From TrEMBL:
Top-level taxon of the source organism: Bacteria
CDD domains the UniProt entry points to: WHTH_GntR (cd07377)
Protein name (Swiss-Prot/TrEMBL): Predicted metal-dependent hydrolase, TIM-barrel fold
GO molecular function ontology, one term from the record: DNA-binding transcription factor activity
A Pfam family assignment: GntR
Residues of the HTH gntR-type domain: 16-84
Signal sequence, renumbered to the chain: none
Keyword DNA-binding: yes
Length: 547
């Protein structure tokens, strides 16, 4: 008797290696339950047609699934779906959870994993994911207030948090744990929820987790998840989970935000003479602390880097102009950045951080103060979605501003489709922020180059120490990337120090050495002059430099 193969709806193959893309899509269908255990897969010829791929790619994809234990081949019959749980070789038998010892062990496992997940979600969640978490929280509160233990709603809340890590392995692992735990102790959990102040406690605990994820505080999210799981253990009568766990949760609040190394305040003169109007297109000013306090939700604490120190650096390198970029430690409070730029209207410009709710009047005032662009952090998505990018672009288009993107081009799919149609010019920070180990042929880097070649985007030759595999200047592994960017379209390239080089994990570079690296990348004087002076004048609205 023949077995009818599954009917599949597949996505077009993307930028990954074709076999990896096919295997990834099929793996998602198997783990997500779209392809049930025992289902016969389509034939090789059908896969070739569905994915518009070669037979070798299909065979390699099936081999990957077979090696992962998700598929088994039956001679003369075809390939069939196996159980993803069996393939993983890891099991939790719900029947054993009636034992307090086993239940405690599973909750300890969940504690160690889920605490980290809440922290990841605080850093990586998108606005859509945050909305889903908020809606799930509302469903939990509604069910509890109606006298229901809200087991299904609580599970959905935690699953939305797991999804917000944007790590599919974590998401699927948490789904597995929730299913096994629910199957083993659903009745005990339900009754524990409704005892005493259980409903109010759960509402408060989950609300705290949501708030930490909303404001993007990973340490607060970690502590909130830890507290919720400890209280869950309390409600189940497992007070043995307290002790070192309680003290560890307390110590998490004492973790210090790392303090950055200060910049080298003795910059060396470069070995060549920059042209009139030469511009440092990316730098930050920090402090004084008393006047410009940092956000408590920052990832680093910079030492003071003053206006006077920055102007000294520019003078030492024979640079005439600078662009002050709003750093993350100030959030959306652009006061420090704009106060400095306002004092130097002829020689400084600003790139600010705003949200989509900013008014036209506020933007116009920022323009008068010297702002010429908005910076968006898409490196970890940071709650910013593609739709937000478009809304902000629409708001700033009339001012002639640009969008400056902090983005790893190796991890952001569809760069051209996302940024190409925007009504404003876009600027890539730090050479695209892709590790040099990925190579210049990486599809993401090539997409960025295509936007530059077409005149739709700019790239800053800056922050090379953020992507190098080396510890000291000159970072020779950066040269092929910089030269490819310049070759793509030298009229769309900028150079910058990234002074005072906050939060780096290599030896502090001297700014003169960084400028000398640029001389290696662009030995032609006319090209150097265009990148250092003529291009910044066009983008930031400086007066055209005179030779």
């Amino acid at each position: 008797m023949s077995v009818k193969p599954a009917s599949l709806s597949v996505r077009p193959v993307g930028r990954r290696r074709i076999s990896d893309e096919i295997a990834g899509q099929l793996s998602e269908m198997i783990i997500g339950g779209q392809l049930k255990v025992g289902t016969k897969l389509p034939t090789e010829a059908e896969f070739v047609k569905k994915f518009d791929a070669g037979r070798s790619a299909v065979r390699e994809a099936i081999a990957q699934l077979r090696e992962a234990g998700l598929v088994e081949s039956r001679h003369g019959v075809g390939a069939f779906v196996c159980s993803p749980v069996a393939a993983a070789g890891f099991k939790i038998d719900p029947q054993t959870l009636s034992s307090l010892e086993h239940l405690r062990q599973v909750l300890e496992l969940r504690m160690e994993i889920e605490v980290g997940g809440a922290s990841m979600a605080a850093r990586r969640r998108t606005l859509d994911q945050l909305t889903s978490i908020k809606e799930a929280l509302g469903a939990v509160k509604g069910a509890l207030e109606g006298g229901d233990p809200a087991m299904k709603e609580q599970r959905a809340f935690h699953q939305h948090v797991a999804t917000a890590t944007n790590n599919p392995y974590f998401r699927d692992l948490m789904r597995f744990l929730y299913e096994r735990i629910d199957a083993g102790i659903a009745e005990d959990l339900a009754s524990s929820v409704l005892r005493g102040d259980g409903p109010q406690g759960i509402k408060n605990e989950l609300h705290t987790i949501y708030e930490a994820i909303r404001i993007g505080d990973p340490d607060m999210a970690r502590r909130a998840a830890w507290n919720h799981l400890l209280r869950t253990a309390d409600r189940l009568g497992l007070r043995g989970l307290q002790g070192w766990e309680e003290s560890r949760m307390t110590s998490l609040g004492e973790v210090k935000i790392p303090v950055c190394t200060a910049a080298d305040l003795n910059p060396q003169a470069p070995r060549f003479t920059p042209p009139p109007g030469a511009t440092d297109c990316h730098a930050h000013i920090f402090g004084p602390d008393a006047q410009y306090p940092y956000t408590p939700h920052r990832t680093y604490t910079p030492p003071e880097a003053s206006e006077a120190q920055y102007l000294h650096m520019l003078s030492s390198l024979s640079l005439s102009r600078g662009v002050i970029v709003q750093p993350s430690v100030y959030g959306r409070d652009n006061s420090c950045t704009l106060d400095v730029v306002r004092r130097h209207p002829e020689t400084l410009r600003a790139v600010v951080v705003v949200d989509e709710d900013i008014s036209d009047k506020e933007l116009e005032q920022m323009h008068a103060d010297g702002a010429r662009g908005v910076r968006l952090n898409l490196l970890f998505r940071s709650g910013v979605e593609v739709s937000d990018v478009r809304r902000i672009a629409d708001k700033i288009a009339a001012l002639g501003w640009h969008l400056q993107m902090l983005i790893d081009v190796s991890e952001f799919a569809d760069i051209r489709d996302t940024l190409g149609p925007l009504p404003v010019e876009t600027v890539f920070d730090h050479l695209g922020h892709m590790p040099t180990s990925a190579g210049t042929n990486h599809p993401g880097f090539q997409e960025m180059l295509s936007l530059v070649a077409d005149g739709k985007s700019w790239v800053k030759l800056s922050g090379s120490y953020r992507i190098t595999g080396q510890n000291e200047t000159p970072y020779t592994d950066i040269a092929p990337f910089a030269r490819e960017i310049i070759r793509a379209n030298p009229e769309r390239v900028l150079w910058a120090t990234d002074w005072p080089h906050p939060y780096i994990n290599v030896d502090m570079p001297n700014d003169g050495a960084l400028l000398n690296m640029f001389d290696d990348w662009a030995p032609d004087a006319a090209t150097r002059d265009r990148i250092l002076a003529e291009n910044p004048a066009r983008l930031y609205g400086f007066d055209t430099p005179r030779s």
